[in-house]
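Why do we care about 3D structure at all? Because function follows from shape, and shape follows, mostly, from sequence. That is the central idea of this module. The next example makes it concrete: a single protein chain, its amino acid sequence, and then its structure expressed as tokens.
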Amino acid sequence: MKKLFISAIFAAILLSFSIGAQASLLSPGLSVIQKSVTMEKKGVAKNAVAFSSEDFEEALGMEKIDAIKITSLPSPETGTLVLDGKSVAAGDVIKSDMLNHLCFLPADNGVCSEFGFIPCESAYKEDFSCVISMTEQALNLAPTTKDGTISDMAGITVFSVLSADDEDSKSLHFSVVSGAEHGTVEILDVSTGEYRYTPAKGFYGKDSFTFCVTDDGGNTSNVSKVTVNVEKNEKNIIYSDMVGDELHLAAAVLFENDIMLGSYDGKTRVFKPDGTVTRSDFLIMAMDAAGIHAASGESGFSDEAEFSPYEKKYIATAKSLGITVGIETENGLCFCADRGITAEEAALIACRISALEGLELVPSDIAVSVMEDDSYDALAVLANAGILERAKAEENICRADAVEILYSIFKFTEKE
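And the structure:
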């Protein structure tokens, strides 16, 4: 049957006649035109082809369709017409509100099929044909992007990743459409969407920029907006040795919340990211990040006499909650407060705190407790969350490593 789209002339002819439920066509010419009209649907590979009431209304040039009657079915070799998962039979009447549940299930790639239908309660005497064409190869569809929101602090650069989806392309190219009004945006990796935003000097408030992405087939996505909430830097926290570092914002947030502090080099505030972290310092900061209150008590560790009063209440609380278990030494079970903390030890503390507080940092299918430390890899848990991905278990962590873990605990705690 010759393929023909409804023209404005056909629509005008239809609208010029009042056709009642029992009326007959007023012109033999309309019958000829009807025979030339074919509804057409396209599908991809073996994917189901879905219909809607709008498909039939557009094909028939009708403003509203009440129902259709299926007059003939697709050849079984080409596929099956189904409604809500059940096969449709010739003679079935499908109401308008159910047409969105009608679909064609192709038997194979590249098939061409056809079925007949006629609108109910209309003057049409002959059925219409719907031709379904299935392409053998999946179409290279345009990628899609999503709006996003990030938080920053005045005077500090923030790093993030733009969001896009494209299942049928091997490579993507991200680009900024309109830059930020109160800062600068730089895409660091056009293939992954990694970028950095730097607010203008003295600016705080709301800013935004837009972006899009192009796939390897030349298809361009929709344009999406990233909103940047730049908070006022109340304590003027700028670490001179962290400027331009991805962890600068995290370090500033921890300082602002009295979790992890820096120091001064003359009149300049510094963080010393390569500095060491002791076991007691990390435990205290991790508990503060999670909002765990430290109460007075005895820890039972053999080296308890070496703890400061401030350390003692945190270590005792951590011991009672199962956050720490200590280290076996020749002097008995000790905490070793002043010893550097390894990546594995820090990961265990983070996982135990997360499990204790119900934080999403630890997947729900992992049972974390002091008695089950051997049943899971704490360092792998953090790596899966994008934290300490390259850390070696037995090596001591530095202050920059600690920021990664503590900031994650703090942010997950904020979500709860």
